[in-house]
Amino acid sequence: MKPFEYASPGTVDEALSLLGETFDEGAILAGGTDLLTELKDGTFSPSRLVDVKRVSGLDLIEEGADGILRIGATARIATIAEHPSVLARYGALAQAARETASPQIRNMATVGGSLCQRPRCWYYRSEHLCLRKGGANCLAVEGENRFHAILGGSPCYIVHPSDLATALVAFDASVRILGPGGERPVPILPASPDAKADPAKQFYVLPKDDPYRENTLQANEIVTGVRLPKPAPGVKSAFVKVRERGAFDFSLAAAAVAADVQGGKVAWIRCSLGAVAPAPWRAHEAEAAMLGKPITLETAAAAAEAALAPAKPMSQNRYKIHLAKVVLRRAIVAVA
């Protein structure tokens, strides 16, 4: 492991001052459940770790008078899973938090770290020079790709590993980012699937826009938290995931759905998929298929078919299409 400096600031401004202009100069340390693995593997070797656990206020979870739920970047995943406001209004987020990793990791890992974690792709995490590390191409294309992307891939086929991010998409969450120019709130994903990558309009980006990064966070910026708008009174939500083992494992496919059913028909709905694309994936096709219709096994199945119609499987991961349809269908039905 490359030697590094360690800093433990007490304020956000102090933390910002310790970051550099490149990611190799300084990195934020919170729970460390992903970052420390990268350090040990040699995947990432910053010169300084900036530990933000002492920064006051970054771990708060509070509901404002405006009804917006504010979750600080260093709030623990275990805390999110049991918080009364989350359980009352954002059930899919609580479910996703409970399904994340193991109890030990949930008690250390933070929401900011979950959103910013790096790919779990074995080519990226090993000594191989893949595209994301400056190589000529994505080694999964001709290699082992059974866990890789079926949506939004090319030229890199990683999948984003965060269950929390999948759930946050279903609630139209925004990410708060603080840098030298002040705070900038950005949607976790753009409203339109065809929107061009814009740091002012989205947090996550796809490889077609930038094959070397997963989000628009700059080296001298820090995620301070997320904001969830107040859902309508009738909105219900659900999160469903499938993993390779019945143990503490990353998702093979996951889905989060939030919907408002009025008069027996869907008046508003958000559908998102996890572990099938390089970023959390909003299933716009499923939403369009469900609007104005009742939630039945048949309509949910049709919506899942529509969502996965654009899928482009690789040589070993065609099974993910079926899994993604199953979890999305189950999540849609669950909100009914």
Description of the molecule:
With 336 residues, the chain is α+β, with helices and mostly antiparallel strands. Among the domains are: 61-115 and 160-228, Uridine Diphospho-n-acetylenolpyruvylglucosamine Reductase, domain 3 (2-Layer Sandwich), CATH 3.30.465.10; 235-334, 2-Layer Sandwich (Enolase-like, domain 1). The protein is 26% helix and 21% strand. The strands form 3 sheets. The protein has a 5-stranded antiparallel β-sheet. Strands 9-10-11-12 form a 4-stranded antiparallel β-sheet, with helices on both faces. Helix 5 runs antiparallel to helix 8. The protein is globular. The N and C termini lie far apart (51 Å). The mean pLDDT is 95.
Elements, N to C (H/E) = EHEHEEEHHHHHHEEEEEEEHHH
SSE class: alpha+beta
- The order of strands across the largest sheet is 4-5-8-6-7
CATH topology (level 3) name of the domain at 61-115 and 160-228: Uridine Diphospho-n-acetylenolpyruvylglucosamine Reductase, domain 3
Radius of gyration: 19 Å
- Kindly, what is the distance between the CA atoms of the first and last residues, rounded to a whole number of angstroms? 51 Å
Determine the number of helices (DSSP H or I, runs of at least 4 residues).
11
Overall average residue pLDDT: 95
- The general outline is globular
Major sheet description: 5 strands, antiparallel
* Helical coverage, percent range: 25-40%
Share of β-strand residues: 15-25%
Report low-confidence residues grouped into runs of 5 or more: none
> What is the CATH class name of the domain at 61-115 and 160-228?
Alpha Beta
Question: How many beta-strand segments?
Answer: 12
The CATH architecture designation of the domain at 61-115 and 160-228 is 2-Layer Sandwich
